[in-house]
Design goal:
By secondary structure, the chain is of the alpha/beta class. It is about 50% helix and about 15% strand.
């Protein structure tokens, strides 16, 4: 990286950190289609704000592994091959939201997925007078770029190094730079599977997005660029949404 690029990145990081300390983030629903880098951004926001990421998948696995009352019920349901109902997921989220590390907010991952869950969450937070309402931020990346990110992925079966034939290709096409092993493509990293995942994401997410948009608690940020710059955009969006409702 050139000295000018390094200086620019440093300025973005400094600005991002300064902005993040100016607000109490509160509950944030982070949205993003497959491949936008939502997980990376969630980790960045956790670092900036010192708040936890609450993943319903992680909560479910933890409750089952720990043998909690909720976990035992969920395990029985899953063993019957049934989907865990919203009511049970809601209870797990409610318990997690009461832990001390959530006092300044948290990043919601995978919840709420439905309008029913959105209404439950809004009602739950409204009953806690000192708790801020949820704001939703969606990371936006062009469809064709996402397609290249997904279908271009290749990994080394030996060292697990990840490449992309479009943006980060190996020195010798089809082979790992480190191990020299032939690179592999995951079976679900195809255009057909990606298109199906995008349709499912849109169908599931659109009602939730429209719900928070109507409430004036929704923003979109560009997800194409350096990690720090995208995070700064999310911080600015949250700050704007919070100030508009203050």
């Amino acid at each position: 990286m050139s000295s000018s690029a390094s200086a620019s990145a440093a300025k973005v990081l400094e600005s991002e950190q300064r902005a993040a300390t100016m607000i109490v983030p509160g509950p944030i629903l982070l949205l993003g289609a497959p491949g936008v880098g939502k997980g990376t951004q969630a980790k960045e926001l956790v670092r900036l704000w010192g708040i936890p990421q609450i993943s319903t998948g992680d909560l479910l696995r933890a409750n089952v592994a720990q043998g909690t009352g909720l976990g035992k019920v969920a395990k029985e349901i899953m063993q019957r091959g049934e989907l865990v109902p919203d009511s049970l997921v809601n209870e797990m989220v409610a318990v997690r939201m009461q832990e001390s590390d959530t006092v300044n907010g948290y990043i919601l991952d995978g919840f709420p997925r439905t309008i029913a869950q959105s209404h439950w969450l809004d009602g739950r937070l409204a009953s806690q007078t000192e708790t801020l309402p949820v704001v939703a931020v969606s990371i936006q990346v062009d469809y064709n770029q996402l397609l290249r990110r997904i279908t271009g992925r290749r990994n080394c079966p030996v060292c697990q190094r990840i490449y992309n034939i479009y943006s980060n290709p190996p020195q010798r096409a089809g082979f790992c730079d480190v191990e020299g092993a032939p690179l592999a493509q995951r079976a679900d990293d195809t255009e057909k599977v990606f298109a199906e995942r995008m349709r499912a994401y849109a169908a599931q997410t659109t009602p939730v997005v429209e719900h928070y948009r109507e409430l004036g608690r929704f923003a979109e940020v560009v997800g194409d660029g350096p990690i720090a710059a995208i995070a700064a955009g999310i911080v600015a969006a949250v700050e704007r949404l919070r100030s508009e409702r203050s």
